[in-house]
Amino acid sequence: MFKEIIVSALSALKANKIRSLLTTLGIIIGVFAVISLVSLVSGLKKDIKDQILGLGGDVLTISPGNIEEGGFGGGGGMGAMMKSFGMEDVRAIKEAKIPEVKEVNYQYETYARIEYGEKSYNTFTLGCEPALFKIFDNKILIGRLFDSKEDQSGGRVTVLGKGMAAKIFGSADRALDKEIKVEGKSFKIIGILDETDMNFGPVDVNDVVYIPAESAKKYLELSRISEIHLKLISDQDILTAKRKVEKVLKESRGMNDFTVLTPDSMTSLIDDIMGMLTTALAGISAISLLVGGIGIMNIMLVSVTERTKEIGIRKALGATDANILTQFLAEAVVLCILGGFLGLGLSALLSFILNQFTEVPSHIEPATILLAIAFSASVGLIFGTAPALKAAKKDPIEALRYE
Amino acid sequence: MVVKTSQLSKIYHLDGVEVRALVEVNMEIKEGEFIAIMGPSGSGKSTLLNLLGCLDTASIGEYWLDGVKVDKTINLANIRNQKIGFVFQSFNLLSRCDALHNVELPMMYAGVTSKNRQRKATELLEQVGIGNRLHHLPNQLSGGEKQRVAIARALANDPPLILADEPTGNLDSISGQNIMEILQNLNNQGRTIAMVTHDPNLGERADRIIKLMDGRIVS
Ligand SMILES: Nc1ncnc2c1ncn2[C@@H]1O[C@H](COP(=O)(O)OP(=O)(O)O)[C@@H](O)[C@H]1O
Ligand SMILES: [Mg+2]
């Protein structure tokens, strides 16, 4: 009987292909939107987590603003209201000589104009101490890194990521010893970094231009330190080091307007943000499926009226109210599930395109697929019930008389 | 006795006005009988057929069908499925289903397996002379052919009673004659048939005529 019900539902839907498709459009779009967004979020989450874990378990990151007090991103926008770090903060940490800390590094960040001959790029540029390369385990491919002497004297030397070097010079090995202009000042390329799959947020590390921190201050007129990184002796010391650094900074700054992020706290922060996003998505999906469901109910009601005669005939031949109810309910559910699969197919296509042609990661998990189909089926059940009941309750004599 | 009614009455209430569509009908139909129900328009023929066909229940009175007392307390759908075969004036085939599938329907609701349904439906369609039209949709069939499919469908579950409401009303006279012959053949094979008709020539070919007037049996 089950097979017959499904076959009969499919044939009823096939009899009205265009209408069935239009009816289920709400479900298709709803499922498509939800799956695509969920996949994107879970892809991004995976990506961001990979990056953070890529930093290693022995790096502390100090950011301006206090997350616990809502200063991080809250209170008028990131950065604008927050007092960034200055050299005095870096000095304070260095002078405290915390035994667990191996390297202290600060960095200036900007998007700088990079020129070579006719070519010009707007590129993420880091003013940093040589220690940064150690902290992030960057390996030199050709040439050398700048040393502390060049850093302290503000030397006009630069190290390029491999991707950037290839972009400007065609291939990385042609870049060495060439002069490029950074914001109009010429810098000599002394080294090229080996390829890495790390990212700074949206920035590909392979495309970064590195110059000494002092040079960034002097020639690019940067004075705000955006982040301080601490490399520890061992990843066992994370919490002790975190507490000590917090104490030092609080004393030197006189207030608690910064956050020391451990790799763990960064991943849990991401989890929080993604959790919020997912909740918002669930809301959107509920609304879109509600709209889709109402569409289904509407058309099913019309269809029940149109097929009054059919209902009368079936009842005369011995269909029980339950038979009729099942028949129309099955149609609604099958319609919704088909819509769900179509939406799923569209999101699989989008995911494929994103993964194939862009850097945006997208990742459809099996649980998401199951959820989408279960959701569409329940939409069919819930919104198909009223039309199916209407069909089941029809009086056979009146239904037979219907033209 | 296939049908026995006692004081069977149907009263409709239209805007507070009582319409006595059927008044104290006492009738019997024996197994193997072919009866014609006749009478002017509005005399209660369809109402009687609806009650006999278990599409509706009486306001007053009693009705036994094939030994079962028919009232609101029993499952009318199952009774219709097992004990009644309907043949309608306007055929009432499902337009989306082919001839075979239409004949299978009553068996589907009876829970017969797909294989047995197909075998039986094919047999029945051959029996009414359209074994070569199994997979035609209703709109690919002539009126007479449609009515043959409907007759095959009425026989699907071997019901003790076949009810036909003006089965030739929508047909030309030749097709009508053919349908009448099929019904008579079925009757000769022992089927019990009650047929509503306006046509006195057809009525005469039945074993017996029940004449209705204003909801009462007059002869
Ligand atoms: N559902 C109904 N509601 C009210 N009156 C009805 C209904 N069905 C039939 N009647 C009335 O009952 C009477 C008998 O009708 P019907 O059995 O259809 O007659 P026939 O089939 O002989 O033409 C008519 O007066 C008709 O108007
Ligand atoms: Mg009538």
Report on the architecture of this protein.
Chain B: InterPro entries: AAA+_ATPase, ABC_transporter-like_ATP-bd, ABC_transporter-like_CS, MacB-like_ATP-bd, P-loop_NTPase. Chain B: Residues 3-218 form the ABC transporter domain. Chain B: One of its GO terms (cellular component) is membrane protein complex. Chain B: One of its GO terms (molecular function) is ATP binding. The complex is a heterodimer of chains A (403) and B (219). Chain A is built from 14 helices and twelve strands. Chain A has 403 residues and is α+β, with helices and mostly antiparallel strands. Chain A has three domains: 2-50 and 269-401, no CATH class; 58-100 and 233-261, no CATH class; 108-225, no CATH class. Chain A is elongated. In chain B, helix 3 packs parallel to helix 5. In chain B, a hairpin with a 2-residue loop joins strand 1 (3-14) and strand 2. Chain B has one domain: Rossmann fold (3-Layer(aba) Sandwich), CATH 3.40.50. By secondary structure, chain B is α/β, with parallel strands linked by helices. The longest helix of chain B has 16 residues, at 173-188. At the A-B interface, helix 1, helix 11 and helix 14 of A face helix 2 and helix 3 of B. The complex binds adenosine-5'-diphosphate and magnesium ion (MG). The site of adenosine-5'-diphosphate has 12 residues of chain B, from strand 1, strand 2 and helix 1.
Write the layout of secondary structure elements.
The complex is a heterodimer of chains A (403) and B (219).
Chain A (H helix, E strand, L loop, with lengths): L1 H13 L2 H7 L1 H30 L4 E6 L22 H10 L4 E16 L2 E10 L2 H5 L4 E4 L4 H6 L3 E4 L1 H8 L9 E4 L2 E9 L5 E2 L2 E2 L4 E4 H7 L7 E6 L5 H16 L4 E4 L1 H44 L1 H9 L4 H37 L8 H27 L3 H6 L2
Parallel strand pairs in A: 3-10, 5-7
Antiparallel strand pairs in A: 1-11, 1-12, 2-3, 2-6, 2-11, 4-7, 5-10, 6-7, 8-9
Chain B lengths: L2 E12 L2 E13 L4 E5 L6 H8 L7 E6 L2 E2 L6 H8 E4 L11 H11 L4 H14 L15 H12 L6 E5 L7 H16 L4 E4 L3 H5 L3 E6 L2 E2 L2
Parallel strand pairs in B: 3-8, 3-9, 6-7, 7-8
Antiparallel strand pairs in B: 1-2, 1-4, 4-5, 9-10
Helix pairs in contact in B: 3-4, 3-5, 4-5, 5-6
Bound molecules: adenosine-5'-diphosphate and magnesium ion.
